[in-house]
Design goal:
Strands 1-2-3-4-5 form a five-stranded mixed β-sheet. The model has no long low-confidence stretch (mean pLDDT 95). The chain has six helices and five strands. It is 35% helix and 25% strand. With 157 residues, it is an alpha+beta fold.
């Protein structure tokens, strides 16, 4: 019976790349659970979507859709930085991982982090990095990440 439940969850929660129609499935509202996220018009969303899409594998946004509700319940992104060091290597940067408050505790964040880390590895990155709060450190350790150094920031707005 457990494998039936796992199979049922896999059918219910579809892991995939962001699609243009996801704005109407609560994508922007989900991002508001993460940080300040002002409303954007359909035109602004489409313009940014097309810009990011033009980067191909260098910028990917992963979403998980609850197929029963037609709602985006988890998301995260990864972008690839091309470097001169490490034989002109590449580094993946994971950003903006969030799971809807109604869907937490179901391993969806782990699926998002895994999807993004796999993407970085498959596109030739020698590492993938992310910044997180102390509160999320244990979660990311369960996803295979380890703490290294510290984060610094300088805001312009």
């Amino acid at each position: 019976m457990e494998s039936n439940t796992a199979s049922s969850d896999e059918q219910r929660y579809q892991v995939r790349k962001l699609e243009i129609t996801d704005k109407n499935k609560g994508f922007m509202e989900l991002l508001q659970q993460l940080t300040v996220c002002d409303p954007v018009t359909d035109e602004e969303f489409q313009e940014r979507f097309e810009e990011l899409k033009s980067y191909g594998d260098d910028h990917v946004i992963c979403v998980i859709e609850d197929m029963n509700l037609s709602k985006i319940v988890a998301t995260g992104s990864v972008f690839v930085e091309k470097k001169f060091i490490r034989n002109c290597g590449k580094v993946g940067h994971i950003e903006d991982v969030v799971v809807d408050s109604s869907a937490r505790g179901m391993q969806l964040g782990k699926k998002v982090a895994g999807f993004l880390a796999d993407h970085a590895r498959l596109t030739g990155c020698y590492k993938v990095i992310l910044d997180c709060s102390d509160d999320n450190k244990a979660f990311y350790e369960k996803c295979g990440f380890k703490q290294k150094e510290i984060q610094m920031v300088k805001y312009f707005i």
